[in-house]
Amino acid sequence: MAKREGLRAALAAAPAGSAAALADQLHSAAIHLLRTLRREDDASGLSAPRLSALSVVVFGGPITLGGLARAEQVRPPTMTRIVTGLERDGLVKRVGDPRDRRLTKIQATTRGQKVLAEGRTRRVRLLTESMKELNGNKLAELAKGIQLFNTLVESMQGKQSPPQ
After folding, report:
1. pLDDT digits over 23-55, tens only?
2. How far apart are CA 54 and CA 39, in angstroms?
3. Helix H segments across 42-135?
4. What b/e string do you get for 73-112 counting C-beta neighbours within 10 Å, with b at 16 or more?
5. Which end of the chain has fewer CB atoms < 10 Å from its terminal CB, N or C?
């Protein structure tokens, strides 16, 4: 608790436009954006952990249970429960690895791909409607900001603190 208060005080004291102040604003904006878009996911009928795991499987291709657990930063027993639910809903299936018959991989079904695509369409539609309110100059600024954001995310890869 004291650590969080110290961080708040440091950020409040940071000059406007400083890296610390901008990082705090970006963090807050990202959380608010994701929370707003997450409401669109309710239409899928899936929990956030199931949708996230399904996304990894759809976009990352077939993956082992252990690989999926690492990607989602959960323990294998937790991922087993998530995958079992996705499998029960017909969104993923377990397939043997043709090169190593000891391995089983999790693969998205056509239905799983469709559920994920529909969710993405709903989220993008909401963003599109909001962005229609921006003029050409603001859209150009946003495009530059997105490029900078992507560069920032790439530079952060591998810099995360180890779990405590």
Report:
1. 888 889 999 998 888 888 888 889 989 999 999
2. 17
3. 48-60, 65-72, 76-88, 110-131
4. ebeeeebeebbebbeebebbbeeeeeeeeeeebbebbeeb
5. C
- Cβ–Cβ < 8 Å for 65, 33: no
Burial class (CB in 10 A: 0-12, 13-18, 19+), 67: middle
Triad 116, 121, 127: Cα angle to 5°: 130
Phi, psi for residue 82 in degrees, rounded to 5: -65, -45
Burial of 120 (0-12, 13-18, 19+ CB in 10 A): middle
120-134 tens-digit pLDDT: 999 999 999 999 999
Of 146, 155, 108, 152, the closest CA to residue 127 belongs to 146
Q: What is the pTM of this model?
A: 0.72
Strand partners, 63: 106
Question: SS3 for 132?
Answer: coil
The distance between the two most distant Cα atoms of the chain, rounded to a whole number of Å, is: 58
Backbone angles phi, psi at 102, to 5 degrees: -75, -20
Question: Rounded to an integer, what is the distance from CA 37 to the centroid of its chain?
Answer: 11
